Structures are given as structure tokens and as C-alpha cells.
Amino acid sequence: MKGRPLLPFGIIAIVGIVVMISLSFMGLNQREAMNADEEETEEVTEFEDPVAAGEELTQASCIGCHGGDLGGASGPALTSLEGSYSQEEITDIILNGQGAMPAISNVNDVEADAIAEYLLSISE
Prior knowledge:
Blueprint: H1 7-41, H2 50-61, H3 63-66, H4 87-96, H5 109-121
Helix pairs in contact: 2-5, 4-5
């Protein structure tokens, strides 16, 4: 060891690099498995009460821009949509956005339908 004092440090560094690379690949495999599990559980086919589900989803997704009572804030009021928009049009706006409103990415088609049904049910 007298002639090569850096050899133990070099060996430790090489072992450390190999361990880091191995753990990185293991983490990538685990992330893919987790994403696959999430995709399987996100599938919602139908709500028992779409209006009640729509109300909950609206509280989670819409009140930030449209106000707590949906009477308008930075976004327009959502309390008088009946006659102006059909349920399909509202669903399309939720999923794809329109004008200054961005698409709502955290809802699927069934949830967007429930929100649209709820908004039409509260129209004045």
C-alpha cells in the first residue's frame, strides 16, 4: 500500500458508481410499474349520481377561477349556462379549453360529463 495510496479510494469510487447506476435502473423499472398501476385504477366508467359527483369535481377543479359560488371571479359565471351551451359543448370546453380557459387536464371524459351535467342542473 505504500506505493499506491489512492488505490483503495479508486476502488471505492468505482464500486459507488456501479451501485448508483444499478439503483437508477431499478428506480426506472419501479416507476414504469407504478405508472402502469395508476393507469389501471383511473378508469371510471360511470357515476351512480353524476350530478353529485359533478358538484364534488366542480369544487375541486373550477372554483379557483369561477369563484366559490360559481358566480364568476377571474373566469365567467357558470350559473346560467342552460340555453347557451349543451352538455356536449360544456364537456368539450372542459376537456379542450376555449378562449382564455385552458383544458382541465386532471379530469377524464366521464368526469367532464358529470361536471357539465351538474353545471346545467344549477343554471338559473
